[in-house]
Amino acid sequence: MTDVPAQSLSAAIVRHAANTTFEQLPPAVIRAAKLSILDTLAVAWAGLESTGVAQARAVAIDSGGRPDSLVWGSDQRLPATQAAFANGVAAAALDFDSLHIGGSVHADIVVLPAVLAIAERTAASGKALLTAHALGVDLTARLGMAAPGHSGWFYSSIHGIFGAALGAAHLLGLDETSTVNALGLALPQAGGTQQPMVEKSQAKRLQSAFAARAGVDAALLAAQGLQGPREVFEGRFGAFRLYESANPATVLDGLGQRWEGQSTAFKKYSNCGAAHAALSVALELIREHDLRPETVSGVTVILTPYAHRAVGAAYEPGDQPQVAAQFSVQYAVATALRYRRFELQDIEPAAACDPETVALARRVRVEVYPDSNARMLPAHVAFATNKGIFERTALSIPGSASNPLTEDEVLAKARTCFAYGARSLATAASERLIQKVWAFETIDDVSTLWR
Predict the structure, then answer these.
(1) What residue numbers bound the domain in which 306 lies?
(2) CA gyration radius for the chain?
(3) Are residues 47 and 20 part of one domain?
(4) What is the helix (H) or strand (E) element at residue 393, kind and residue range?
(5) Cα separations (Å) of 390 from 283, 319, 325?
(6) Taking the model in full, what pTM does it have?
(7) Residues 353-412: pLDDT tens digits?
(8) Do 60 and 151 sit in the same domain of this protein?
(9) How many domains does the chain have?
C-alpha cells in the first residue's frame, strides 16, 4: 500500500503479517502454536474459580451486547472485546501460563483470548486462528526482546496489546493501512505496571486481560476506518520512547524466518517464573539429601535484582494469599521443603495461609546478586543442615529452551488443569477438546471448538 510509510517499523511488521499464510508456517511453528493454545486454555480452565475471576466475568456479562464469543467454562456469549477480557483474567489467574523468557512476556494470555474471540465472531477457520496466534505471539515476544531494560512496566501488557491487535486485525482481513491503524489505535491504550506484583494485588491478573480487550478494540476500530498514528514504536512519542527504550533491529531480526512462539516456555510450577529456577534446584536438593524442615536450620536464596523485585519480598499472605503465594520465593521454597512438591493445590488460599508454612517461609533469607543486569538467572539456593551445607546454582529454568518440558509433559499438565477445581471437565470432554486443538487445521469454524 503506497500510503504506508516505507521506513516505518509498524509498516514492516504489518507487511510481514499481510504476506503470511497458514501454508507458509513451518510444521514446527504450527505444532508450537497448538501446544501454546492448549496450555493456555487448560490453565484458564483451572483458574476459573480463582479469586477475582468471577467478579471480572460478572462485570463483562453485565455489559451485555452481541453474542460474539464464548466465555470459557460457561454457556455465556459476549461481544469479542468483553469475552477477551473475561477469558484473559482466567488465563492469568494461576500464573501457570506460558512465558517467553527472552522477552519476559506472557504472550499467550494476551494474544489467545483476543484472537479466539475474534475468530468466533468471524467464524474463522482453525488455520486462520493458528496463523493469527503465531503472528501475535511472535510480535509480542520480539517487542519484549528488543527492550532489555526493566524500569517497572509490565511487559506482557505494554507489548502484548500490539500482538493482540495484530492477530485480531489479521483475522478481520484488514489491509496493510488498516492494520497499521490497529497498531496505532493500540498505542494510546497501552499500559501496565509491576506495582500489582510488588503489592501482591489481584490487578496482576487483570492487566494482561485489559491488553487483550484493548487489542481487540483497536482492530475493530481500525476496521471501521478510524486512523491511528503510524510510527507506533519508533515515533517521537511512540512506544519505544515513552515506555522502555528498544532496538527496532531486534524486532526485525529473522522476522518470518524465526518464529518466537517456538521459544515459549511451558511452566512446570504454578507461580511466578522468576521463582522457578530457585524452586527447581531447591526441590533437587531436598530430594537428593532427604532434607526436612526439622533438619534444616536455615535457607538462603540468591536472586538477580529483576527476579528479586518480582518474588523476593518477605512473605506475608495478606488479604490476597493466593497472589502472595504466587509471587514469593520464600513461600515456594518453604512449600517444597515441607511437601517435596509445588502444585496447584499449594497456591490455594488455605495452603498459602497455613501457619506452619508461613513460619517456615520466614526462615528463608533472600539475597540479591550485586550489579547483575540478568533477568531470572542465575539463582542460588543453600540449605544449612546438621550434616553441613547443601547448595546449588540454577543456570536454567524448567520449561525453557535449555531445559524444556516434553510434549507429553505439556499434555499431562493440560489434563491435570482441565480436571482441577469445581468446574473440572470429565475425562472424555477433556480428551475431546485436546483432540480438537490438535486437529485445528481441519476445523472450518472455530466456534465448533466448544461443541
Answers:
(1) 273-394
(2) 21
(3) yes
(4) strand 388-394
(5) 12, 35, 25
(6) 0.95
(7) 999 999 999 999 999 999 888 889 999 999 999 999 999 999 999 999 889 999 999 999
(8) yes
(9) 2
